[in-house]
């Protein structure tokens, strides 16, 4: 069933039954005659990837390596760091880029926001009183800023990393759909340019790993293939021949977008700046065919990487919606209200009985530990410099919609069953009763239903104001999420499937 993390003030969902329903087909064996996505549950990539020599030789590859990981306090990076420390303790060092004013502040964030979280409890139990000593021997917090030269790292530290680092993993991102355009560009686009420029200075660099999202594609229906920007359907067919290389989409000039956002930031007054920059970002995104500022700036980040990488070895990872851990280090760990979580919470509390969405949409979700395991396998394959890569097999879509599509109506039925068996409670301690989830074909239908929920019940002016604001909020969310609640695209994951074929028998069967 769906799980709730009772140790947090927030309520998190979507692990146990949902993830297992996804994984039962998503990771089914490639021999079933379908594009079966990632790998079978017994594959070890799904569960505990205790990597052995042979095959990709993942454990051997990471032994003695030094890594630089950006976005270190983010959800996915934490799962990645924990996995490496737990299963590959022979790794030499991990430099973790953390936004902080100085080394002391970076160390404080490392301990409070990464090491001391529940995620590390298995490592803490394993090492006992030596846990902190082990952690500090492996993890090096580095204060920095993605949008600055040398990613904001002090010169002496930057020089050390440039001399020593073998692998760079850029997982820094702002994932808010309607983020201020200047903030989103700084992290998702300009940040990508800065980290690539820094990577080019690294003397021993074997691989640069760019974590993107499956939703960088402007395509919203049909099969979405694993293909880099500048190739195939990503290039506008009517682009003029004189356009610069970075104009992948007709009329889109990344440098011009960065400059325009900077100018707009200065033109707005203090009181109106936040909302104006959010609205401006959404308008620019939709002008070029992306649904929101997040996917637009992440797409441009990929374009920057592809355009500026030169001969540097690069892989692009595109996970879909990353959910809580399926099995590693334990089932059900998640942090923050992610993507669909607030909707489940509102549904369970009786505040949202339905939404503007299609019952036939595929909910493309992948547990965090599967994304991490796929990442480690891809790094081991490409990090040796002899993987015989073609132009596009460095792009990996870690997704589920082709392999084992989870239909929205089935997902919401699981949620309904869960809250019937394990209800939320109101302030008086009474279980909250919910009805089956309703799918509305228009925003007006949804708002009309919500407006009439209380019937003829008399409410105070204050309650009426609260209800009116709630309706406005749900209308805004319906507009914001509509590209996904009616999404008809399916993400090809052939390259991930081929990656799994490279695993040895030990790597495949290890649990």
From TrEMBL:
EC number: 1.2.1.84
One Pfam family matching this protein: NAD_binding_4
SUPFAM superfamilies: NAD(P)-binding Rossmann-fold domains
Positions of the Thioester reductase (TE) domain: 69-374
Molecular function as annotated in GO: alcohol-forming long-chain fatty acyl-CoA reductase activity; alcohol-forming very long-chain fatty acyl-CoA reductase activity
GO biological process terms held by the UniProt record: long-chain fatty-acyl-CoA metabolic process; suberin biosynthetic process
Annotated keywords: Lipid biosynthesis, Lipid metabolism, NADP, Oxidoreductase
InterPro entries noted in UniProt: FAR (IPR026055), FAR_NAD-bd (IPR013120), NAD(P)-bd_dom_sf (IPR036291)
Family: Belongs to the fatty acyl-CoA reductase family.
Protein name per UniProt: Fatty acyl-CoA reductase
Lineage: Eukaryota, Viridiplantae, Streptophyta, Embryophyta, Tracheophyta
